[in-house]
Amino acid sequence: MSVVGWDVVSSNPVWADATPEDKARAGELAVHVLWSLTGRIFGLVESTVRPCFGPRDGSTYRGTAGGGSDAYWWPGLINQTWSVGGCGCTPGCNCVGPSEVALPGPVHSIVRVLVDGEVVPASAYRIKNSRWLIRVDGMPWPQSQNLTAGDNAVGAFTVTYLQGIEAPLGGQLAAGDLAVEFLRARKSDGRCKIPDRAISVSRQGVDIQMVDAQVLFEQGLTGIASVDQWIASVNPHKIKSRPRVFSPDSPRVARIR
Fold this sequence. Notes:
This protein is an alpha+beta fold and 257 residues long. It folds into two domains: 13-42 and 166-234, no CATH class; 49-159, no CATH class. Helices cover 23% and strands 27% of the residues. The strands form four sheets. It has a five-stranded antiparallel sheet, with no helix packed on it. Strands 4-8-7 form a three-stranded antiparallel sheet, with no helix packed on it. A two-stranded antiparallel sheet has the order 2-3. Strand 2 and strand 3 (81-88) form a beta hairpin. Helix 2 crosses helix 3 (169-187) and helix 3 (169-187) runs antiparallel to helix 5 (225-234). The longest helix has 19 residues, at 169-187. It is elongated, with a radius of gyration of 24 Å.
């Protein structure tokens, strides 16, 4: 999985002297490691989804299922086909109109939207609250779709977007420090601060206890003070992934990739 939106910043001469190819490899590795160790909160990942929603029948949405004057239509699975369901807008009901679609957030930017295989112009929609895809050209989003059709086929509604939060400056500097150590390890010049798998060394009567790198990574650390301090500041509880809320009434999408 490629992670973007995370610049690698370093003033270290090792980084400045590295070739573009080595910088790209070390930087990508550093970013991916930090993305994982910080709970996959920072960094942008491209996601492609097919908006779909739960069935109207048996829904716990409150309101008139018949769709009175105060009802909005919401896509739902009815009789094994993707069609529409009703949701009355009474207090506590999470209703939206036909021009609004909820996407798994946070939504950073839209790459493209396809309806029936045709690209919807970017001027026709906007992002609201880093989650909602709002159509602003007076047209509704498709109220049903065929999930068995290809992404760019007739009957399909596909949204590709960048999901996540760009890394702050502290994360960019941490990525630079970690990338420098990866470059040093690649050169094997003996100055790399990343500990290897050795746990003890005895030389000339001196015993040195070392830290197992695998143990550090299992604890969510790297062994580099500046990097570990930043990791601890943004992920003190060592979460493995972004928290999610699951509810049978929440809008859903079919995640393609």
